[in-house]
């Protein structure tokens, strides 16, 4: 599914009469409907289609259950790295994993 929108980008530029060069910096404004224009503005109709996924934030959720025997044990750096890599492969994002003792 995509989010679709049509709008006008109105570009404004002023030019010097004596050498036809730009007089200052051009500017742009956006309008949903057909705009009223000044003499030095040009409308550009833009049709924009953006995938819905661009608007979604990842909802990460995990459930980890440790057996009672694991309570006072250290989790090695290698295991921490493997956990982070496994999560990165699933979500496609960089992961920093911190394990803290209560």
Tell me the total number of β-strands.
3
Task: Kindly give the count of domains.
Answer: 2
Describe the sheet with the most strands. 3 strands, antiparallel
Mean pLDDT: 82
**Helical content (DSSP H or I, runs of 4+):** 10-25%
- Count every helix, treating DSSP H or I runs of 4 or more residues as helices: 1
Span between termini = 44 Å
Which word captures the global form? elongated
Question: What order do the helices and strands come in, and which of them pair?
Answer:
Layout: E1 2-12, E2 27-31, E3 41-51, H1 77-91
Antiparallel strand pairs: 1-2, 1-3
Describe this structure in words.
This protein is 15% helix and 26% strand. The chain contains one helix and three strands; from the N terminus they run βββα. It has a three-stranded antiparallel β-sheet with strand order 2-1-3, with no helix packed on it. It starts with a strand and ends in an 11-residue tail after the last helix.
Quick rundown:
With 102 residues, this protein is of the alpha+beta class. The chain has 2 domains: 2-54, no CATH class; 57-91. It has one helix at residues 77-91, and strands at residues 2-12, 27-31, 41-51.
């Amino acid at each position: 599914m995509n989010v679709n929108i049509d709008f006008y980008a109105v570009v404004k530029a002023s030019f010097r009469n004596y050498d036809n060069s730009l007089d200052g910096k051009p500017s742009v404004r956006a309008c949903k409907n057909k705009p009223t224009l000044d003499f030095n503005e040009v409308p550009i109709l833009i049709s924009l289609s953006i995938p819905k996924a661009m608007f979604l934030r990842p909802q990460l959720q995990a459930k980890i259950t440790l057996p009672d025997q694991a309570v006072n044990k250290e989790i090695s750096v290698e295991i921490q790295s493997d956990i982070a890599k496994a999560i990165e492969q699933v979500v496609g994002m960089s992961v920093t994993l911190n394990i803290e003792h209560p």
